[in-house]
Amino acid sequence: MPRESLEKLYLHELKDLYSAERQLLEALPKMAKKAEHPELRTAFEEHERATRKQVERLDRIFKDLGTEPGNQACKGMKGLVAEGEEVMKAFHDTDVRDAAMIAAAQRVEHYEIAGYGCARTYANLLGHTQHAELLQQTLDEEGKTDQRLTALAENVVNLDAMKV
Ligand code: FE
Ligand code: FE
Predict the structure, then answer these.
(1) pLDDT value of residue 94
(2) Ligand nearest to the CA of 22
(3) Cα 164 to ligand 1 centre (Å)
(4) Ligand 1 centroid from CA 14, angstroms
(5) What's the pLDDT score for residue 4?
(6) How far, in Å, CA of 104 to CA of 122, rounded?
(7) CA R_g for the chain
(8) Residues with CB under 5 A from ligand 1 (ion)
(9) CA-CA distance, 122 to 127, in Å (whole number)?
(10) Taking CA atoms, which of 13, 42, 81, 138 is between 20 and 30 Å from 20?
(11) Closest CA to 73 of 116, 120, 28, 19
(12) How many CB atoms lie under 10 A from the CB of residue 29?
């Protein structure tokens, strides 16, 4: 692949991630508000704070590239957020709804993990070492969030949902 094309793809991926994070920033407070388990509410609230920092990291990268995120929309995140809203309405039992929100949130994290992993790899290939470090930091945070949600589901929320 010619270097110029990979730069273009890198920028495309960064813009997609930026749009994804911005959409998630709007969705997370709603999910926190709906969460019945305090641990889940805290997890969503903390991930909202982490997401703000993730947006700042992307801002730094765009600035370094001398460009702006623009308005390229991430359709994947749009769909994932819509599915989250759907289950929040569909399940009225609070424990089951918490389990459903975790399932939706984990889809979001996996989507982001795929995007950040690719962007980090392109950054390294293109010699943007500093970008790669920033993207790796976010990638690690998304991974930890995913693991935290798994533990919360397996140790608490799914068990409560079984008692219904
Ligand atoms: Fe994120
Ligand atoms: Fe995330």
Answers:
(1) 96
(2) 1
(3) 32
(4) 12
(5) 73
(6) 28
(7) 17
(8) 21, 51, 54, 112
(9) 9
(10) 42
(11) 19
(12) 12
- Contact between 28 and 51 under an 8 Å Cβ cutoff? The reply is yes
Question: Residue 3's pLDDT is what?
Answer: 66
User: What residue has token string 């359709």?
Assistant: 75
Cα 111 to ligand 1 centroid, rounded to whole Å: 9
**Residue bearing tokens 């997890």:** 43
The domains found in the chain, sorted by start residue, are 6-162 (1.20.1260.10)
Q: What is the pLDDT along the chain (164 residues), one digit of tens a residue?
A: 566 799 999 999 999 999 999 999 999 999 999 999 999 999 999 999 999 999 999 999 999 999 999 999 999 999 999 999 999 999 999 999 999 999 999 999 999 999 999 999 999 999 999 999 999 999 999 999 999 999 999 999 999 999 96
Task: Give the whole-angstrom CA distance, residue 38 versus residue 151.
Answer: 14
Q: Estimate the crossing angle of helix 94-125 against helix 129-152, to 10 degrees.
A: 160
d(CA 159, CA 162): 5
Cα(58) to ligand 1 centroid in Å equals 10
Q: Specify the 3-state DSSP secondary structure of 91.
A: coil
Q: Which amino acid is at 136?
A: Q
